[in-house]
Design a protein that fits this description.
With about 260 residues, the chain is mainly beta. It has one domain: Neuraminidase. The protein is built from no helices and 23 strands. Strand 7 and strand 8 form a beta hairpin.
Length: about 260
């Protein structure tokens, strides 16, 4: 799920190759865009770029990024590693997070690899990275089986942790159980999806705890993606119950004013 120019783009886990486009005011379905050879059950993230007026889709199955413009034209390019989170930086380039090799890769909009950063050994399984205006990276990492589940601010070269929030897996304030996806607002406050704790946490620009934005009683299943509309101050959260073996799913989008 992502937003672009007053529209929401949504890809369901249903064995189809269509991206659904909805109006952000009425939530009315406007059109469906076909992306050939996309593998919806293996999609790991979506993000958008207002500069190029396009949407990027991370496809784990073919280790590639699909590029879909607002008119429905599409291309794709290889990442050559297992990939997860996507974001777009201030230079309008695509930041791709590769969890198993602990790398952040930066690509141009046309898929040219511009650079890659290897994160420290203790940043185990990074899922999503967002580059700040100061060129540092906010990175979420860890699953239930890992010793550390947290959100880190990395130096611009990816080698050093500047700030962090979290640590040993848990459910208390200040702990996470699979911090999966991030959103950063214009003031660099950070929203974190805490997947198995079923909540969304807000952190300051230095990753200090601010408050819980979404609580478990606001969700039916498990949250796993965020999309922040900074203009309308709306946070969209996907709330899903997925069966990956059968590609059957229940889900909805929860909208919260922030």
């Amino acid at each position: 799920m992502t937003s672009l120019a007053g529209e929401l783009y949504l890809l369901r886990c249903k064995g189809r190759d269509q991206v659904e486009v909805y109006d952000v005011i009425s939530y009315r379905l406007l059109r469906c865009l076909t992306v050939p050879d996309i593998h919806s059950v293996y999609i790991r993230d979506m993000t958008s770029c207002i500069h190029y007026r396009c949407v990027y889709i991370a496809d784990l199955y073919c280790e590639c990024v699909h590029r879909l413009d607002a008119q429905g034209a599409f291309t794709r390019w290889a990442v050559n590693d297992e990939l997860c989170g996507l974001s777009v930086n201030t230079a309008h380039n695509v930041i791709v997070t590769c969890p198993h090799v602990r790398k952040i890769k930066e690509f141009s909009s046309d898929g040219d690899l511009l650079r890659q950063l290897t994160l420290p050994d203790d940043v185990i399984r990074p899922w999503h990275a967002i580059q700040t205006h100061s060129d540092q990276f906010i990175v979420s990492h860890g699953v239930s089986s890992d010793p550390v589940n947290r959100v880190c601010m990395m130096s611009a070269d990816g080698r050093h942790i500047v700030h962090s929030h979290g640590g040993q897996r848990g459910s208390d304030t200040g702990q996470y159980d699979w911090p999966w996806h991030l959103a950063v607002d214009d003031n660099e406050f950070v929203f974190v999806v805490d997947k198995y704790n079923r909540r969304v946490t807000l952190l300051s620009p230095t990753l200090q705890y601010v408050r819980q934005v979404v609580s478990p009683d606001q969700l039916k299943w498990e949250p796993d993606r965020l999309c922040l509309d900074t203009q309308r101050r709306l946070l969209y959260i996907t709330d899903n119950d997925l069966d990956f073996k059968s590609c059957k799913s229940l889900g909805r989008v929860v909208v919260v004013r922030v």
